[in-house]
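[step 3/7] inverse_fold.run input=structure_tokens len=192
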């Protein structure tokens, strides 16, 4: 035996919502879409110009694994796994727990996760306390936090066009593994 509310049977055409009139056209059903628009980052102070205002940041989220190549202008933040080369005119940040397998070219590289590959060109590299770098590094400046781990050759503070004589040629290289290698150059700033 079923019990029905007689008043509900007589109001079939009435809207269940009091604010909607009964003759409102049906809503168009569309599939849900995700917004993958890069987030805006605060403008960075650029040397000598106002460039950097409105620069976008692209994010590879923590639960993503992507294989490919990243090229372009803008900042990139990796919180997940990425396998491939990164070549950007902007900053690259590898978050704690993230992993990048590939070579890197960027203006500024900040590593808190794992980087398996070479940093081929960067104005500034910062290795945070949880950073692991397995590869060669070539940068204008390098900041290394206590606790970070590096395995590879480091060229820091040298410009390709720099033809000044090496004033440190008589000193032993800071990296003893490179003591027998010609051209081993190390200029490291340690922070704790």
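[step 3/7] decode complete -> sequence:
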């Amino acid at each position: 035996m079923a019990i029905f509310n007689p008043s509900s049977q007589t109001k079939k055409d009435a809207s269940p919502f009091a604010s909607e009139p009964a003759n409102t056209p049906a809503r168009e059903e569309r599939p849900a879409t995700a917004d993958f628009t890069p987030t805006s980052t605060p403008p960075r102070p650029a040397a000598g110009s106002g460039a950097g205002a409105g620069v976008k940041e692209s994010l590879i989220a923590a639960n993503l694994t992507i294989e490919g190549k990243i090229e372009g202008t803008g900042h990139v933040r990796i919180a997940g796994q990425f396998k491939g080369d990164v070549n950007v005119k902007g900053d690259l940040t590898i978050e704690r727990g993230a992993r990048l397998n590939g070579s890197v070219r960027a203006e500024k590289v900040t590593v808190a996760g794992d980087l398996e590959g070479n940093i081929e060109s960067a104005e500034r590299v910062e290795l945070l306390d949880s950073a692991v770098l397995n590869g060669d590094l070539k940068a204008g400046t390098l900041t290394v936090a206590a606790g970070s781990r590096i395995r590879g050759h480091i060229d820091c503070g040298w410009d390709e066009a720099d033809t000044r004589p090496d004033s440190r040629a008589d000193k032993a290289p800071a990296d003893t593994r490179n003591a027998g290698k010609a051209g081993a150059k190390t200029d490291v700033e340690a922070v704790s």
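[step 4/7] annotate
Residues 140 and 158 are 6 Å apart (CA to CA).
The radius of gyration is 27 Å.
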